[in-house]
Structure prediction request, 82 residues.
Amino acid sequence: MTPGYDLKQLFIGSEGTIGLITAVSILCPRRPSAMNVAVFSLSSYEAVQKVFSEAKGRLGEILSAFEFFDRQCVSLIVAVYV
Prediction:
């Protein structure tokens, strides 16, 4: 063991405040080659949960988003954009 400061422990003990960022690397997934959208009209929230479970079970990783709009939300969208 060499005398002097243990730089690794000094850095860890400072909770990163004496660190210096020298590079950043961001990995982004590729844009999908196709996008499919389906719109359903369902009678209840329980029906939405059932459809979601079925879609997730059948599509797995292919399913990238699942959204739910209640009647009040749809009415607001129609009032603003139509």
